[in-house]
Amino acid sequence: MIKSVEKTMLEQNMLPFKSVLVGLSGGADSAALAHALCVLSKKYGFKVCAAHVNHGLRGETAARDEKFSSDLARSLGIEFFCLHASVREEAEKRKISEELAGREVRYGFFAQLMDNHGIEYTATAHHKNDNAETILMNFIRGSGIRGLCGIPYRRDRIIRPLLDVSREETERYCRENNIDYVTDETNLETVYTRNKIRHIILPEMERCINPSFVDTVTKNAAVLSSDADFLDGEADKAFSMLVKDLCVDTARLSGLHPAVSSRVIRRMIDNICGSEDVPSAVVFAVLRLAERGRTGSRTDIARGVYAAVEYGKLYLRREHEDAEGFDYTLNIGGSVYIPEMGCSVRVEKAEERRKDGWEYFGLPKENCRICIRSRRTGDRFMPMGMKGMKKVQDFMINEKIPKDKRGSVGIVTFDEEIAWIAGYRRDDRFKFHKNGIKIKLEY
After folding, report:
1. Nearest 10 degrees: CA dihedral of 121, 124, 125, 130?
2. Using CA atoms, how far apart are residues 221 and 132, in angstroms rounded to an integer?
3. Taking a C-beta distance cutoff of 8 angstroms, is the pair 315, 329 a contact?
4. Which residues of 357-367 are buried (b: 16+ CB within 10 A; e: fewer)?
5. With the C-alpha atoms ordered 65, 66, 68, 72, is the resulting torsion angle positive or negative?
6. DSSP string covering 110-179, please?
């Protein structure tokens, strides 16, 4: 097993490094990993430390695992760190599963230790069987080709040196080297999906269909990973060219190969949800929405997040309460920052019109009150070049201003009369002739 771990670390460019932190649960896999890395440290000269998290879920059993891990680290002569966490409270507070909360607590603790102690990597004890289980889980969930690539050998500062080693090999290694380990009894309960795959599905697959099923699955994952890397590169190019502010032109999106367009959607979802681990059914639903292209149509993606089509554009958005209106006074010779618009509005006196990027207006009277505000129900104005009044709402629809952007469009008023839909159209009644004002949006 030592040779296998060393080979993996060399082939996956994990070596060399000066220090590594082992995620030590006390089970056979992490105990074997800690011992193997200590053996290799003598050859490669790196420092090994260990970290254990007591999740506060299993009472005396958790305390047993903590003590065992501490004793094992001491016997190996490596520094030991421990975190006591209340994972159940964290899960309830963040409205996520205990499994996800535990994972985030662990990896957060690992990152903190690496930062505080100058440790280069954290090694976790995921092995070949874990990889096969993950691939089957992702296949069942429909997570797409990237999910079928399994667990990566490395991601950022996390390395997984045991991915070419089976569970049976880690247990045999422990027996041959007289390494004790503990067993988490929850890993034996088949109420959890992963445990059903581990204890029921995989053994049946190996007994009835393919005795080398785990090896076959992990080899296929390596092939798929190479294909996925190429397609991800193509998707990265398309994303950078087509997507801006989580918005993409539906016609250009539909012109991509489905393998690329689906990845573009996954990246958009990742940007708003923080994870690309989204079921394929959700991605396909968003693609169908874009293909239909009906303005006003939408589909839910995750809690509080949805996709919508408006005027040939696909947007990803978060649900939110209607933003409160804004109303700011503008003074001639001054500038006001409007956070709702994301820009400053500057007003200056003007004696003559110039082509300089400013908008020029004639005032109805001296000392009139100049304001900029959000739209209001019933707003009307006379668009430049027209003689009749038009509803601001109808104007915004005709201009194809997305619904969720309309509340942040500034309406400039002179004594309560609309003079300019900022950035779009001036009012015909306030034409500049001479000795008026000029207004500019400064982003």
Report:
1. -130
2. 9
3. no
4. ebbbbbbeeee
5. positive
6. HHHHHHHHT--EEE----HHHHHHHHHHHHHHT--TTGGG-S-SEETTEE-TTTTS-HHHHHHHHHHTT-
The token pair that represents 297 in the structure block: 């149509």
Q: pLDDT tens-digit profile of 96-129?
A: 888 888 899 999 999 999 999 999 999 999 999 9
Amino acid (1-letter code) at residue 264: V
Indicate the pTM of the whole model: 0.63
Instruction: Examine residue 383 and say whether the peptide bond preceding it is cis (omega within 30 degrees of 0).
Output: no
Contact assessment for residue 31 and residue 179, using Cβ atoms and an 8 Å cutoff? yes
**Ordered DSSP codes for 297-352:** -EEEEETTEEEEEETTEEEEEE--PPPPP-EEEE-TTEEEEETTTTEEEEEEEESS
DSSP lists the bridge partners of residue 380 as: 391
- E strand or H helix at 69, and its extent? helix 59-76
Encoding tokens for residue 16?
């060399």
Alpha carbons within 13 angstroms on the beta-carbon side of residue 253 total: 29
The structure tokens 């194809």 sit at 400
Give per-residue pLDDT as tens, 307-356: 999 889 999 987 754 446 899 999 999 999 998 888 899 999 999 988 88
- Name 330's Cβ contacts closer than 8 Å, sequence gap at least 6: 336, 345, 347, 370, 371, 372, 412, 439
- The CA R_g of the chain, rounded to the nearest whole Å, is 30
Q: What distance in Å separates the CA atoms of residue 353 and residue 99, rounded to the nearest whole number?
A: 65
Whether the predicted pLDDT of 389 surpasses 50: yes
pLDDT of residue 322: 43
Q: Percentage of residues in the chain with pLDDT exceeding 70?
A: 96
Q: What is the mean pLDDT of the chain?
A: 90
**Which amino acid is present at 309?**
V
Residue 442, strand partner residues: 344
